[in-house]
Write a structure and sequence with these properties.
The complex is a heterodimer of chains A (110) and B (114).
Chain A: E1 5-7, E2 10-14, E3 19-24, E4 32-37, E5 44-49, E6 55-58, E7 61-65, E8 71-76, E9 85-92, E10 98-100, E11 104-109
Chain B: E1 4-7, E2 10-13, E3 19-25, E4 31-37, E5 44-50, E6 53-56, E7 64-67, E8 73-78, E9 87-94, E10 104-105, E11 109-113
Parallel strand pairs in B: 2-11
Antiparallel strand pairs in B: 1-3, 3-8, 4-5, 4-9, 5-6, 7-8, 9-10, 9-11
The chains are: A mainly beta (110), B mainly beta (114).
Chain lengths: 110, 114
């Protein structure tokens, strides 16, 4: 069974701080996706990483896929209150099924 | 704009009273998924349709059923909702069941069971 361990589960920081969220597995994934979900809404895809070692940037967000394609990280620089939400990593498993991590609830206080 | 639409956004039902949630899509995608998401947890896949082919997850209770009358619409039926079924229900679509395909999520229906 493919599993994804996401950490930390909860993160409360002040505006302007940096943070990193980790997503780890013992399984290899063909690709890994990061979603952001605001309260009362569905997840919105931020990025898909496909190649081992790949780094993608989305403004203040940096996503990295591990060389062995078993782990990924999301780094946010100078967090803002608008970054508040639930961040989900999801590995793409057999048949295109998404295998989600537990999620990281991020709160950025002004 | 092409999108995934879920109605209603909020649904209140009584313990044991059947309820149906609906999802429609204008993306013309072949695959439609239903997920259950409890507070501050990751979405849990209940089942999916690949075209008309229904695929149930092994741990999805029999209380949950689904119908897909055509490409655009998919329904989630909860035959006898219990208090533990209160959750956000998310519909998603993808063009195919391939690793490279993105899943597009609807806004969800929040179900409250009284």
């Amino acid at each position: 069974t493919q599993l994804l361990e996401q950490s930390p589960q909860f993160l409360s920081i002040q505006e302007g701080e940096n943070l990193t969220v980790y997503c780890n597995s013992s399984s290899v994934f063909s690709s890994l996706q990061w979603y952001r979900q605001e309260p009362g809404e569905g997840p919105v895809l931020l990025v898909t990483v496909v190649t081992g070692g790949e780094v993608k940037k989305l403004k203040r967000l940096t996503f990295q896929f591990g060389d062995a394609r078993k782990d990924s990280s999301l780094h946010i620089t100078a967090a803002q209150p608008g970054d508040t939400g639930l961040y989900l990593c999801a590995g793409v498993g057999q048949g295109g099924k998404l295998i989600f991590g537990q999620g990281t609830e991020l709160s950025v206080k002004p | 704009d092409a999108m995934v639409i879920q109605n209603p956004r909020y649904q209140v039902t009584q313990f044991g009273k059947p309820v149906t949630l609906s999802c429609s899509q204008t993306l013309n995608h072949n695959v439609m998924y239903w997920y259950q998401q409890k507070s501050s947890q990751a979405p849990k896949l209940l089942f999916h349709y690949y075209d008309k082919d229904f695929n149930n997850e092994a741990d999805t209770p029999d209380n949950f059923q689904s119908r897909r009358p055509n490409t655009s619409f998919c329904f989630l039926d909860i035959r006898s909702p219990g208090l533990g079924d209160a959750a956000m229900y998310l519909c998603a679509t993808s063009l195919a069941r391939l690793a490279k395909e993105t899943q597009y999520f609807g806004p969800g229906t929040r179900l409250l069971v009284l």
